[in-house]
Design goal:
The complex is a heterodimer of chains A (277) and B (280). With 277 residues, chain A is α/β, with parallel strands linked by helices. Chain A has helices at 19-35, 57-60, 67-79, 127-130, 158-166, 183-197, 248-255, 264-276, and strands at residues 4-11, 40-42, 82-90, 98-106, 109-115, 138-142, 145-151, 171-176, 200-205, 207-210, 213-216, 220-222, 228-231, 238-245. In chain A, strands 5-4-3-2-1-14 form a six-stranded mixed sheet. Chain A has a six-stranded mixed sheet with strand order 6-7-8-9-12-13, with helices on one face. Chain A has a two-stranded antiparallel sheet with strand order 10-11. In chain A, a hairpin with a 2-residue loop joins strand 6 and strand 7 (145-151). Chain B has helices spanning 12-30, 43-56, 74-86, 97-106, 115-137, 147-152, 173-183, 187-190, 204-208, 212-223, 228-235, 239-251, and strands at residues 34-38, 61-65, 90-93, 139-141. The A-B interface holds A 15-17, 50, 52-56, 180, 208-212, 214, 235 and B 17-18, 21-22, 25-26, 267, 273-278, 280.
Chain lengths: 277, 280
């Protein structure tokens, strides 16, 4: 496993309902990431289809593996790159059960997927209308490190990140479709989640406007002490390359020993209270 | 939450940037050649004219001035010209007087003394002019409704609120005024009393029965689910006033939506047909 890797934060504006065009963009930026010496390129939530697709999600969703993931797998094999992107995933067992999923592929094919656990259904969001939530946190041991996945609103739930970290993730990726009115929350939470778990956090947001929703971009890499070490532009498409040195974790964990000081008995209490809430 | 005027402050540079980006992307994605908007000489239309010009260039924005003899006001025309010159808009004056006279004469039950019904004919006739230019010249109709009047239902259904985009519909009137000043619109114009100009000497605040400074704070509280009693306490206003504003806001939802249809089919327009608005 590599101790140092290079990430590319591919902050794109997706063309809604045009998987072919978005796949072309994914290909173009994966090649660009390779040129920059990146090991991993990350695209935003629902970057395959665009975020505000509403009822069209039933036409756009695909199984994993499926036609689109196979194309991205082929791209990863051809370039030797690792790629993370978001898409609506159709259940293999039913015809209209859809998940909001992050897909992780590498040079040897599909590494895994993460189904968004917390589906925002308030304000302008109506994800529970369309998606079934996921039930598992993920941490994938890969050639480029132990990497966990999360999606957007999950970041409001520290337990998702704590579990992901406890499963071994040293870099937690959060792909997002966050509109501008929520920018300040994400700027705080990305640093908080990295800091409290002493993990690297790569946040990649959509840019552009969909149905009046303006995605604020601002993708970033946050180091385990909560500092933002790389940041893409606000609002517009951008591409940022940054370095992750996993040996920094040791320095952070000794200085901020939150994992050492973890109190498992509180989690039982947490469960008990949450059930009665 | 303390209901004070500073709540309505915002970063107007950021607001300008967001609205301009919204306009530009919409026009580009729609493949339109530009924008047409009604240029009344008022603050709302002046603000959308300025924003449209900053977004896509004044040469791509057509400001229609639509005077008519009953309500003719040279000052409004002059103010509209000031904004047009400042933001390099194309303009066109269309005197609606003959069209309106024709309509009045063609409606068998037309009642000259009913100024509200007659005024609504004027607002809808303006819409017809705007959409004619939009169709003919492949332009987007840019609406000038703000959040205060939209929440209050203070507009003509299918009239002044009829548009393809509404760039300032999420800004209260007091915010629009400040945005206008930020954009460099002359103070005299930015702060002049608003009027729908449906009949002579009509002003919005006298019809609504409240100053926008107070109205906007009441609406701000209602928007955030504040209890009317709390709004009354904080603003030291009569309970009847807040109740009246709340009732009016709720009663006018029909003006802000697609027409109501009985649910019969599998998926219904305006109800559970949830499709993305494509502009390309």
């Amino acid at each position: 496993m590599k101790n140092k890797i290079k990430l590319a934060l591919a902050q794109i504006s997706s063309k809604r309902e045009s998987k072919s065009e978005n796949l072309r963009k994914i290909e173009k930026l994966t090649l660009k990431a390779k040129e920059h010496g990146a090991d991993l390129v990350i695209f935003p939530e629902m970057s395959l289809t665009g975020y505000v697709v509403l009822d069209q999600v039933y036409e756009l969703a695909e199984t994993i593996p499926g036609p689109s993931t196979e194309k991205v797998e082929a791209l990863a094999k051809r370039t030797g790159m690792h790629i993370i992107f978001g898409m609506p995933e159709l259940s293999e067992k039913t015809q209209a059960t859809v998940f909001n999923t992050a897909v992780f592929v590498g040079p040897r094919g599909l590494i895994g997927k993460y189904r968004k656990m917390y589906l925002p259904t308030h304000s302008v969001f109506e994800e529970k209308r369309y998606f079934r939530p996921g039930y598992e946190v993920t941490a994938f041991q890969t050639d480029i490190g132990n990497i966990g996945l999360s999606i957007c609103y999950d970041i409001f739930f520290p337990e998702v990140y704590r579990l992901t970290r406890l499963k071994g993730a040293q870099l937690i990726v959060c792909i997002s479709a966050s509109p501008a009115v929520r920018k300040s929350y994400f700027e705080i939470l990305t640093s908080a989640r990295a800091l409290e778990n002493t993990a690297f956090l790569a946040y990649v947001n959509l840019a552009g406007v969909e149905d009046g929703l303006q995605f604020w971009g601002g993708s970033r890499l946050v180091c385990p002490t909560g500092d933002v070490v790389a940041k893409a532009k606000y609002d517009e498409e951008d591409f940022a390359v940054c370095d992750v040195d996993f040996s920094d974790l040791r320095t952070a964990e000794t200085f901020i020993p939150t994992l050492r000081d973890l109190r498992p008995e509180l989690f039982d209490k947490f469960k008990e209270c949450a059930e009665k809430f | 939450m303390k209901l004070i005027s500073s709540l309505l402050e915002m970063d107007f540079s950021e607001t300008q940037k967001r609205i301009c980006r919204f306009i530009k992307e919409y026009v580009e994605n729609a493949g339109a050649k530009g924008i047409v908007l009604g240029l009344s000489g008022g603050i709302d239309s002046g603000t959308i004219a300025a924003l449209s010009s900053l977004a896509i260039g004044g040469e791509n924005v057509l400001g229609l001035m639509l005077p008519e003899k009953e309500n003719f006001n040279q000052k409004d025309i002059d103010d509209a010209k000031v904004v047009a010159a400042q933001f390099h808009l194309e303009t066109q004056v269309c005197d609606m007087s003959d069209a309106l006279c024709g309509l009045y004469g063609a409606i068998p039950v037309f009642d000259q003394s009913d100024r509200l019904c007659k005024g609504n004919v004027k607002a809808r006739t303006r819409m017809i002019y705007l959409y004619y230019y939009a169709n003919k010249q492949n332009r987007i109709v840019c609406g000038s409704s703000d959040k205060s009047e939209t929440m209050m239902g203070y507009f003509t259904k299918w009239g002044d609120a009829a548009a393809d985009i509404a760039p300032i519909m999420d800004l209260y009137k007091t915010q629009v005024r400040k945005l206008a000043l930020h954009l460099g619109i002359p103070k005299e114009l930015a702060l002049k009393p608003s009027t729908p100009a449906l009949w002579p000497n009509q002003t919005a605040e006298s019809e609504l029965g409240i100053k926008y400074e107070t109205l906007d704070l009441i609406l701000y509280g209602l928007e955030r689910f504040m209890a009317p009693e709390d709004i009354v306490d904080q603003l030291a206003v009569e309970k009847t006033l807040v109740d009246r504003i709340k009732s009016r806001w709720l009663a006018n939802e029909h003006k802000r939506r697609m027409p109501l249809a009985p649910k019969i089919g599998y998926r219904s327009v305006g109800n559970d047909f949830r499709l993305p608005r494509h502009t390309y």
